[in-house]
Every structure is written in C-alpha cells, then in structure tokens.
C-alpha cells in the first residue's frame, strides 16, 4: 500500500482522491467557519488557528481520515483499529501565520497535517528549529506526519486566496470498560 516517503523529520504521503474531495471540504469549511456556534481555539496573531467542525458536516472528511489513519497505522506499526484521530481545520488568509508549537499536551503518538487548498504564495510548514529546520512546501492532497514533540510553525501566507489544512493527532483508541 505504502505511498509514504520519508523526509528529514517526517513522513509524506498523498491522498489519491484529493481533487473533488478537497473542493467539497473547502466549500463546507468556508461556509461553517464564520458560524458563531462553531468551536474555535488558539487565538494568536488576530485569528483562531483551530476551527472544530463536526465530521458529519464536511463531505469527504471520512475518506481523508480513513487514508490518514492507514498511513498513521503504517508509520506506528499499529492496527488502524487501535488508533483514534482528533482533527481541526486551519484556514489561513493573506498575512496569517501559525506560531511555533508542539502537540505533546496529551497522549498523542503521531501528528499530521493534510493540505486541502494550497494556492500560489501560500505559507510553508517549518519542522524543527534553528539550523535543524526542514521547510515543507505543501501541495493539495499531501499529508505530512511527524512527532507530536517536534516544534513546528507555519510561515506567513502571502496568497490572496485562502489556504486550508487539517491538523490531526493520533492516539491509542480508548478501550471500553464494559
């Protein structure tokens, strides 16, 4: 199956059905992102970095999560039924940036980002710090997987069009105690 390749600090893979699915995801996120009932967190630099929209409201989201979970399973050497995925949307406009951070708050095993819309002059993903940085130029349909402990940030978007990505964290599925 693979389709994964190793880059300096991460693994990279592609979602084969990205074209039509990404258009539907972008349209739905743009529609729901301004809804005052949608949960948003991480207000930095004048915007909410994390937008949480129910999976059922986003056409094609199940397919993206399924592919990401298959790649995560391969990277971690775990059966995909052992993994659960939490996700959020990151919608960037011209001038937006995502500050340096990690995802090691809980019991995450692997973090990832999936790129939905990446217009010309979009922001880039920076993994690591200082001389040990790796800069990834995103492409629509690309998935990048990395350690939750790895410091990462996103450069300033210079595009007049929105850039949309989906952040993900994978952890072990909680066992029912019945």
* Unreliable residue stretches: none
CATH superfamily: q2cbj1_9rhob like domain
How many separate structural domains?
1
Task: From the alpha carbons, calculate the radius of gyration and give it in angstroms.
Answer: 16 Å
Look at the structure and give the CATH class. Answer: Mainly Beta
What integer is the average pLDDT? 92
Number of helices: 2
The CATH architecture category equals: Sandwich
Measured by DSSP, the beta-strand proportion falls in 35-45%
Major sheet strand order: 1-2-10-7-12-5
Share of helical residues: 10-25%
* Quaternary structure of the protein: single chain
- How many beta-strand runs? 12
Our measurement of the CA-to-CA distance between the termini, rounded to an integer number of angstroms, reads 35 Å
What string, H for helix and E for strand, traces the elements in order? EEHEEHEEEEEEEE
Shape: globular
Structural class: alpha+beta
Would you give an account of this structure?
There is one protein chain. The chain is α+β, with helices and mostly antiparallel strands. The chain has a single domain, classed as Jelly Rolls (Sandwich). Helices cover about 15% and strands about 35% of the residues. The strands form three sheets. It has a six-stranded antiparallel β-sheet. Strand 8 (about 125) and strand 9 form a beta hairpin. The longest helix has 16 residues, at about 60-75. The chain is globular. The N and C termini lie far apart (about 35 Å). The relative contact order is 0.24.
Key attributes of the depicted protein:
178 residues, alpha+beta, Jelly Rolls, six-stranded antiparallel β-sheet, four-stranded antiparallel β-sheet, 2 helices, 17% helix
């Amino acid at each position: 199956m693979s389709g994964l390749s190793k880059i300096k600090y991460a693994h990279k893979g592609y979602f084969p059905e990205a074209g039509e699915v990404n258009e539907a995801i972008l349209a739905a996120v743009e529609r729901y992102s301004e809804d005052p009932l949608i949960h948003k967190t991480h207000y930095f630099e004048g915007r909410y970095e994390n937008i949480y929209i129910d999976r059922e409201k986003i056409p094609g989201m199940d397919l993206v999560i399924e592919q990401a979970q298959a790649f995560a399973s391969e990277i971690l050497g775990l059966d995909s039924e052992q993994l659960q995925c939490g996700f959020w949307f990151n919608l960037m406009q011209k001038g937006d940036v995502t500050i340096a951070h990690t995802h090691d708050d809980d019991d995450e095993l692997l973090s990832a980002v999936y790129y939905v819309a990446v217009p010309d002059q979009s922001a880039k993903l920076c993994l690591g710090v200082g001389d040990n940085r790796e800069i990834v130029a995103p492409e629509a349909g690309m998935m990048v997987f990395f350690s939750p402990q790895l410091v990462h940030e996103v450069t300033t978007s210079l595009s007049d069009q929105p850039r949309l990505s989906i952040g993900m964290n994978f952890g072990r599925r909680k066992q029912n105690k019945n």
